[in-house]
Design goal:
Blueprint: H1 2-7, H2 10-17, H3 34-59, H4 68-76, H5 83-92, H6 103-113, H7 120-126, H8 130-134, H9 138-145, H10 150-164, H11 179-189, H12 196-201, H13 206-211, H14 214-219, H15 226-241, H16 246-255, H17 268-277, H18 281-284, H19 294-299, H20 305-312, H21 319-347, H22 359-363, H23 367-370, H24 378-399, H25 415-420
Helix pairs in contact: 5-6
């Protein structure tokens, strides 16, 4: 009862002293748990009043302490109402080093500049400054930000490394190329529009293009055809030659839109237009979305007339059409390659190491053309090897020249066995 006296109010005391008798004059005995139940019921009433008061304060613009974390998180995440404010913060990040960023800068940069709003909630919970972001390892990116995608982690890693030391960046303009331009514009100009969706899902930007390898194309971008890999890598090499500057590339393409010059920067659509201009309209549809663009024509040494004819679908029997194509390609490609070699020798720039060599033409043969040039299988090679061995042993048995005790006789086997015997 000592503990209960601490929680009893004046009303409880008055009930015990003055209100202890019932109206009929009989003394009413109080239950021991009555005051306890009143205390707890009164606590519930008080808590409900406080919550109602907090709700009223929240309606007036003030944030309640109990919902502070959830409400502040909802306000911090990207939405239509705070888009302009976050856009200003993202622009501010361009002039401030990452080590001086606050939590709002980090979140705005991740959502808008890096186009990763899907990781914004965990970023708001765990990353409170730019210094923390600079110190994240790849495994910590997965645990602190929830980034399980390998390409997404690499994209964020490249951007953080560039922020750590901007002077080490070889192509500063690559940071201005976002994944939207690559997936919806650049990949179509290469004639590889089938890969637009996967490039957009993997958030491939300018920095990522500069470090892509053939292994990345096969494993993460589902690009297994060798010709398409070579086409993409030559397109990346073209971006390197213009310094990843979209404006420079667009300007050079506009200058040669009506003139057959500077084929290095031609898009797939411009190559199709050139095929139409040389009176090969019946074959130009085969070149659409084929991966053939100007950088492939100029930078790929093995892309010759035969490869172009295979891409256009010109059969070998059309010898006069192939001769016409040879003449037109020499007029277009030879000057461009000569100018490129002269510029490379003067600047000591090495050519792109993405050539497919002899397999380039074979990679573009259609299934009908490739049937009579099937690559020998392991089973066929093994059969021929065993056939030669059996033929040799048979000839030794019949000629009597089988080695005895390690000594080989010099008798020559009959020529008839060499002609009549056939491999298995």
């Amino acid at each position: 009862m000592v503990h209960l006296s601490v929680f009893q109010s004046n009303e409880d005391l008055s009930e015990v002293t003055g209100a202890g008798h019932s109206p009929d004059g009989k003394k009413k005995r109080r239950k021991s748990f009555g005051s306890i139940s009143k205390v707890f019921s009164r606590g519930k009433n008080r808590r409900s009043i406080i919550e109602d008061h907090k709700t009223e304060d929240g309606d007036s613009g003030q944030t309640s302490p109990t919902s502070k974390s959830s409400s502040s998180l909802n306000i911090a995440l990207l939405c239509q109402e705070n888009y302009q404010d976050k856009l200003q913060l993202a622009e501010t990040c361009r002039t401030i080093h990452m080590s001086k960023w606050k939590a709002s800068h980090v979140l705005s940069w991740l959502e808008l500049t890096m186009s990763m709003p899907m990781y914004g909630r965990m970023c708001a919970e765990n990353i409170k400054s730019g210094k923390v972001l600079l110190g994240l390892s790849d495994s910590e990116m997965e645990s602190a930000l929830g980034i399980n995608n390998t390409m997404h982690r690499r994209k964020l890693r490249l951007a953080i490394d560039e922020q750590r030391d901007p002077n080490l960046c070889k192509y500063p303009k690559a940071a201005d190329i976002d994944h939207t331009w690559i997936a919806h514009r650049w990949i179509h100009d290469l004639g590889l529009s089938n890969y637009s969706a996967i490039f957009e899902a993997q958030l491939i930007d300018g920095r990522m293009l500069n470090v892509l390898s053939k292994k990345d194309l096969e494993k993460h971008l589902n690009m297994h055809r060798k010709f398409h890999q070579c086409s993409l890598l030559h397109g990346i090499e073209l971006l390197r030659r213009v310094g990843f500057d979209k404006e420079v590339l667009s300007e050079r393409r506009s200058q040669c839109e009506t003139n057959d010059c500077d084929p290095l920067v031609w898009s797939n659509q411009r190559v199709v237009k050139w095929v139409q201009d040389i009176d090969l309209q019946e074959y130009c549809d085969n070149l659409k979305s084929s991966g053939v663009h100007g950088a492939v024509l100029v930078l790929e040494p093995s892309f010759n007339v035969e490869a172009m004819a295979a891409a256009l679908g010109i059969p070998p029997s059309k010898s006069y059409i192939r001769r016409h194509l040879t003449t037109e390609m020499e007029v277009l490609i030879k000057p461009a390659r000569s100018a490129l070699e002269a510029a490379s020798s003067g600047s000591k720039r090495k050519g792109p190491a993405v050539s497919l060599g002899r397999s380039f033409e074979r990679s573009y043969l259609s299934p009908g053309e490739d049937e009579h040039k099937k690559k020998p299988t392991f089973r066929g090679s093994l059969g021929r090897a065993l056939g030669r061995k059996m033929k040799h042993e048979l000839s030794l048995d019949l000629s009597g020249d089988r080695p005895r005790d390690g000594i080989v006789t010099g008798t020559r086997r009959p020529r008839s066995f060499e002609i009549d015997s056939t491999p298995v």
